Amino acid sequence: MRILSFLQAENKIAPKKRVIIIVLIIVIVAYGFCLPKNLFNVSYSTVVVDRNNELLGARIADDNQWRFPEIDTVPEKFKTCLVQFEDQYFYCHWGVNPVSIGRAVIQNVKQGKVVSGGSTLSMQTIRISRNRPRTWFTKIKEIILATRLEFRYSKKKILALYASHAPFGGNVVGLEAASWRYFGRSPQNLSWAEAATLAVLPNSPALINFSRNRKLLLEKRNRLLGKLYANSVIDESTYELALSETLPSEPLPLPQIAPHLTTYFYKNDKGKYCHSTINKNMQLQVENILERWYGEFSQNDIKNIAAIIIDVRTNQVLAYCGNINFESKRSANQVDIIRSPRSTGSILKPLLYCAMLQEGQLLPKMLLPDIPVNINGFMPQNFNKEYDGAVPASEALCRSLNIPMVCALRTYSVPKFYDFLKKAGYTTLNRPSSHYGLSLILGGAESTLWDIVSSYNCMAKTLNYYLANKDYTSQTLLQPDFLIEEQTVKSKQNKLYNAAAIWQTFEVIKEVNRPEEIDWRNIPSMQKIAWKTGTSYGFRDAWAVGVTPKYVVGVWVGNANGEGRPGLTGAKTAGPVMFDIFNILPRTKWFDIPYGELIESEICRQSGCLKSRFCPDTDTVLICKEGIKTEICRYHFQINVTLDGRYRVYENCAGDEGMRQESIFILPPVWEWYYKRHHSDYKSLPPFKAGCGQQDDMPMQFIYPQKNAVISLPKQLDGKNGTVIFELAHYNSNATVYWHLDQEYVGSTNYFHQLSLSPPLGRHVITVVDNEGNTLSSNFQIVK
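Request: output the structure for the sequence above.
Response:
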């Protein structure tokens, strides 16, 4: 605008000159804007490399071309070969070499056809980007655009653009794709003969390539090698060795390492160069381990395995095996199990244990009930179908007992644990907590291997962070990542775990019996691993997750189609695979004790609760600070007994025999009934001395059926109705119990209180009365 104003103000300038100046301005402006902002508007292949830039895999571009994303620099060997072959004055001209153009014109006129184009690498880059028919007009336009290209980009960038988009025959485009497709290695690792082959190939890839006119291609390569030798670029021995190299016979398949991760990037980062955190060597070792175990599992028709390794300290994924036999389509092998929701089995139990510890609702040795229960029709069972009566919480977790953990969840509350899991990153809980109920802790919900391993990784990171910093103030927790220098901030979590609770949880699950038959605790070289297994209902999913201060390893075994198989358990399948993976990882020392988050407290040795004034035996142990809020022992009582300890008495009826006070450990009747089977040293509450009253608490309790139970009686072979075995626990082993069904006497029992009855359909009341007059009733219903 300033120039136009100047021209209007200067009347001295002749009109012709004014027109010329305007035309020149238009030409300059047109020249400045003649080159498109994006020179190449094409689709690219999705390329995934490991942490050391080694190719893991790729997916073809949308136009079915193997065209890797643009490179920044061209390897020296290829660059030298390319410049020597195509444009040896590349670094001397501004996009056009007049000498080459003139020579080409003379040759073409003499031959009467186009035999030489005289194009520079800059002109060829423009031609590739435009992909127009070769005419004199397009040639002139290429010359103009080539000079403009030189003003926009450096020589290094122009070479990179050419190398990234040059055709190399068939559907192979660009140096990176060509190097992998023809020689199975990256361009940086090409020999002189290979680099020379690729340098001459784009000259006429449709006419001379590896499947057509191979002899002419070999001659062109060797002439280029001779030129390099003549110009002292390579020495004689290198030249001779290069000449002896043969041409590849056909394109090679690209690597298929971590194929499910490559597919994940293809769906989420299509057309990009993905620099992953995967360690290629470790990935290959894990894939070999899975293949070896598949050979054994497949004999039981178990066809799918997945595994993942996370480096706790860097928060990076080192190995990602979404499944096995990726190229097979017979057993859903292309399904990425790491991202697929599956029933969790018992794998969430350590999280509940940790949450209850840090909130002061549980102590490690606190007794939990392990008895038959019926909670609104939900009747969980232990895997071994047995009952211990009462077990310490740590033992219940270590043995993965179902009933104690269900009772623990009932105490903690399902909605609260549901919210805890959501905060821990479990993304598949897409229904209300009431939908899952107490089965949430036994596999009633689905989760992914990714979410499960991420939560265990978060626990290990929190403990490591506290041990290093002695606080949580600046801690930032992110989901594990598999891209170098890229963390997903939206996955940031607030402090969720307490270091002391994590340490106590890990201390428990590191004692879980391992698949090896040897006692690992007595072998110093065996590293400590906190690990947990899980098995879904119907033997459909087997899980194993292991944690050390540096690594988290997660394994899933099963069938992607949900088919269950006998013996498909976490301990027998996923566990051995997980330990094999740990064997290839560097060993690390165990977590230090987070003393700052622990306090000393006196604990009742028998109940595991905070000691009461009646607890005779106590231990001083470290517990979470919040553990001081837990209840004191309610299983020890002080009673008056005769001097020989055989009977209980009141002060007013002790008589001349005298009495003494005794502290006694007593469990509820049903707990006691099962507990005595496993603890021969357990002493039941002694009976009252004759004529000295009766105990204040109910001395008996129904084992089966539970209150309001709904019972189905199948027909027997003779057509008669089946029977119900009613079972009762009584403090006094010598008591006689009288049974009544709907107020009608049906029998009596001694010692072992079991009675078999066949009630008709409908609602009933079972009532029992012992020889001391204690009465107990329970409602139940018989259905078809």
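The chain has 22 helices and 26 strands.
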